[in-house]
Design brief:
This protein has 4 helices and 7 strands; from the N terminus they run E-E-H-E-H-E-E-E-E-H-H. It is of the alpha+beta class. Helix 3 packs across helix 4.
């Protein structure tokens, strides 16, 4: 939830109070933007103020867009990050260099009282490696190679990742949209 403050930004980010006790939103839309908007609308109906929610994942065009919106559930319910990576690497095993292109995408939606105010998206392009590299990050970060810095997302510092990641870029777009509304 967003609330006004006197900081350098005209608002403050807060975790949604009592989130664990709220009825969950089932993410079953076919796009990241629809899932983000659905979550933001759902939770904004249950709480006062501005609410934003995101949906993000990895898209591999050579796999017809998989893992896509199913990124977190790609290897089945309850699968771990290493299990999801292993499934991806098995499916990518026969793919040549040109077929290893991939991108992370993030959609963030902003809503108030079940009315959508903004939906922003951004992405970062890279490619899938043959094996994991790096100890940081989460999800598919160890196999997502970012050519601009010649590192996987798991090898980036927090500052580098915030600057270059799909989430960082989408969040800056959201802040820009919010600033123009205030």
């Amino acid at each position: 939830m967003l609330a006004a403050t006197a900081s350098s930004l005209p608002f403050e980010l807060e975790l949604l109070a009592g989130f664990e006790a709220l009825p969950p939103f089932e993410e079953n839309a076919p796009t990241f933007a629809e899932n983000a908007a659905g979550k933001a609308l759902h939770y904004s109906w249950l709480r006062e103020g501005l609410v934003f929610a995101d949906d993000s994942g990895l898209v591999v065009p050579a796999l017809d867009g998989a893992p896509g919106v199913q990124s977190a559930r790609y290897a089945g319910p309850g699968a771990t990050n290493p299990q999801r990576i292993e499934k991806l690497l098995v499916e990518m095993r026969e793919k040549r260099e040109g077929e290893r292109a991939a991108y992370f995408v993030c959609a963030i939606a902003l809503a108030r009282q079940s009315r959508a105010i903004a939906v922003v998206t951004d992405r970062v392009d890279g490619r899938i490696l043959d094996a994991p590299r790096g100890a940081g990050g989460f999800g598919y970060d160890p196999v997502f190679y970012f050519p601009a810095l010649k590192k996987t997302f798991a090898e980036l510092s927090a500052e580098e990742k915030n600057q270059h990641s799909h989430r960082g870029k989408a969040f800056r777009r959201l802040l820009s949209a919010l600033s123009s509304m205030l």
